[in-house]
């Protein structure tokens, strides 16, 4: 097949968007589109947007403006460019995008990706008919039939570590979060579909699969041979049977949805990596309640203890929000306290950003930006210190590293430890995609260095 058209995709935000972008790429390939990283040469541009915080949304709007300039330049040369806005901002703002950026040709949400060829044909017809600005194709419904059945199987993978969406959407409705509105109600794919896709990824060379979902451990998919439903623990055990699949990870989890089966799986399944991203958001019970998180700080600490009792070396990561409406100094202190008790290997922390339509955005007791910044700084200093300590502790240890990509320096490869640390190693390029034994020689805040152990 001649791939005569150029497609530029820019992906914002989370891993689910990265996964979706790859699916869109695969859907457009049969229509003759090959991916380019030069937007000025693209016949079609997709901005796969993120809506989680205001900054992400504004970035997408500013990039739309940049694409408009490129489109104008191409039109001056007698060519054209279809501009598509996908992802969570597209879902949340829909028509507003066509009003604010009328040169956009297509706006569609994450539930409509399987309709991409159809939508593109419609948009192309509109362009050919010379339809005016603001007439772009809009698709932001939540269809009855889940899209997964219509998405193509993986044709290629970008490296030995890859993603697989097993669940989408969220029914938790934390009061700060737009995800339940942008990704819709929780849906779990049947076990056999996931198994088939995982096998296909392994055949393509995947050694590690990260199971994705907005609320991944709420997974409750149809089990094989009508055996009811399985949770993430059972699913992980089953996937671990795939020969050649060496590592399994999953994200993002909710504390409330951790069950015994998942904890036991961490004890029994060696392929399940000893690393867990488990967002807590705050250490204050008052704020957790206001956030509608449905758990207390003690509940979170108890879960951490349970995982540690079955897998003593397990490392934790988390998400935090500072400056949630009404957060007092005391509440913030409780967050620092929780961080000190858990001792995180890494974590993400954010200033609260009001999202239109979410309950917290309407609250009156919003926190001053300056205070948010001060708290963020204090929290990040503490988290960085813990991360540096965790990494320094690895010096002298022997670890198995999956070599994922070529490093910036000659003869250097970059891989990941079981604890998701980035590790730089001097190693021959033929080892890419292999899991090698190394000895850690140094540990900085963001990465480790190691030397190969001769085997
Ligand atoms: N403001 C700041 N951070 C947010 N997150 C979600 N919504 C908001 C918001 N309105 C953070 C949470 C979540 C992560 C993906 O993004 O910490 O776990
Ligand atoms: Fe958002 Fe996660 Fe809460 Fe769902 S569980 S509403 S995705 S923060």
Automatic annotation (TrEMBL):
Annotated organism of origin: Candidatus Nucleicultrix amoebiphila FS5
Stated role: Catalyzes the methylthiolation of N6-(dimethylallyl)adenosine (i(6)A), leading to the formation of 2-methylthio-N6-(dimethylallyl)adenosine (ms(2)i(6)A) at position 37 in tRNAs that read codons beginning with uridine.
Major localisation: cytoplasm
Localization annotation: Cytoplasm
UniProt KW Signal keyword: no
Molecular function GO labels: 4 iron, 4 sulfur cluster binding; metal ion binding; tRNA-2-methylthio-N(6)-dimethylallyladenosine(37) synthase activity
Cofactor-binding details, from the entry: Binds 2 [4Fe-4S] clusters. One cluster is coordinated with 3 cysteines and an exchangeable S-adenosyl-L-methionine.
Residue intervals of the Radical SAM core domain: 156-389
Protein name: tRNA-2-methylthio-N(6)-dimethylallyladenosine synthase
Cofactor: [4Fe-4S] cluster
Catalytic activity of the protein: N(6)-dimethylallyladenosine(37) in tRNA + (sulfur carrier)-SH + AH2 + 2 S-adenosyl-L-methionine = 2-methylsulfanyl-N(6)-dimethylallyladenosine(37) in tRNA + (sulfur carrier)-H + 5'-deoxyadenosine + L-methionine + A + S-adenosyl-L-homocysteine + 2 H(+)
TRAM domain span: 392-454
Positions annotated to bind [4Fe-4S] cluster 1: 14, 50, 88
CDD domains: Radical_SAM (cd01335)
Matches recorded under SMART domains: Elp3
Gene Ontology CC terms: cytosol
Binding residues annotated for [4Fe-4S] cluster 2, in chain numbering: 170, 174, 177
This protein's UniProt keywords: 4Fe-4S, Cytoplasm, Iron, Iron-sulfur, Metal-binding, S-adenosyl-L-methionine, Transferase, tRNA processing
Family: Belongs to the methylthiotransferase family. MiaB subfamily.
Subunit structure and binding partners: Monomer.
């Amino acid at each position: 097949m001649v791939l005569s058209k150029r497609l530029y995709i820019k992906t914002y935000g989370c891993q689910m968007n990265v996964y979706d972008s790859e699916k869109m790429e695969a859907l457009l390939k049969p229509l003759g589109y090959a991916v380019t990283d030069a937007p000025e040469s693209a016949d079609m541009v997709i901005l796969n947007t993120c809506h989680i915080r205001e900054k992400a949304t504004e970035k997408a709007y500013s990039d739309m403006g940049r694409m408009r300039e490129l489109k104008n330049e191409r039109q001056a040369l007698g060519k054209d460019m279809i501009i598509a806005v996908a992802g969570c901002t597209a879902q949340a703002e829909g028509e507003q995008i066509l009003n604010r950026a009328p040169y956009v040709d297509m706006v569609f949400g994450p539930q409509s990706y399987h309709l991409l060829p159809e939508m593109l044909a419609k948009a192309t017809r509109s362009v050919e008919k010379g339809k005016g600005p603001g007439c772009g194709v809009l698709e932001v419904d939540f269809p009855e039939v889940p899209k997964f059945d219509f998405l193509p199987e993986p044709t290629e993978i970008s490296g030995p570590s890859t993603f697989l969406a097993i669940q989408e959407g969220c029914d938790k409705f934390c009061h700060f979060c737009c995800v339940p509105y942008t990704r819709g109600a929780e849906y779990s794919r049947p076990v056999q579909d996931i198994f088939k896709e995982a096998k296909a990824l392994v055949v393509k060379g995947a050694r590690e699969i990260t199971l994705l979902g907005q609320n991944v451990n709420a997974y409750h998919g149809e089990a094989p041979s009508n055996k009811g439903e399985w949770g993430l623990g059972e699913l992980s055990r089953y996937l671990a049977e795939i020969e050649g699949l060496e590592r399994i990870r999953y994200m993002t989890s909710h504390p409330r949805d951790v069950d015994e089966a998942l904890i036991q799986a961490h004890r029994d399944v060696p392929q399940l990596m000893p690393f867990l991203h488990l967002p807590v958001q705050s250490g204050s019970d008052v704020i957790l309640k206001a956030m509608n998180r449905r758990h207390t700080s003690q509940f979170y600490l108890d879960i951490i203890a349970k995982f540690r009792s079955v897998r003593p070396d397990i490392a934790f990561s988390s998400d935090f929000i500072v400056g949630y409406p009404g957060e007092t100094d005391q509440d913030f202190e409780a967050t620092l306290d929780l961080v000190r008790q858990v001792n995180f290997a890494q974590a993400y922390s954010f200033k609260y950003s009001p999202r239109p339509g979410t309950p917290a955005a309407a609250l009156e007791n919003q926190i001053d930006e300056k205070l948010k910044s001060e708290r963020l700084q204090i929290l990040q200093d503490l988290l960085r210190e813990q991360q540096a300590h965790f990494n320094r502790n690895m010096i002298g240890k022997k670890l198995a590293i999956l070599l994922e990509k070529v490093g910036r320096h000659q003869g250097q490869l970059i891989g990941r430890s079981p604890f998701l640390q980035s590790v730089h190693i001097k190693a021959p390029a033929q080892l890419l995609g292999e899991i090698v034994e190394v000895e850690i020689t140094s540990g900085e805040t963001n990465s480790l260095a190691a030397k190969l152990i001769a085997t």
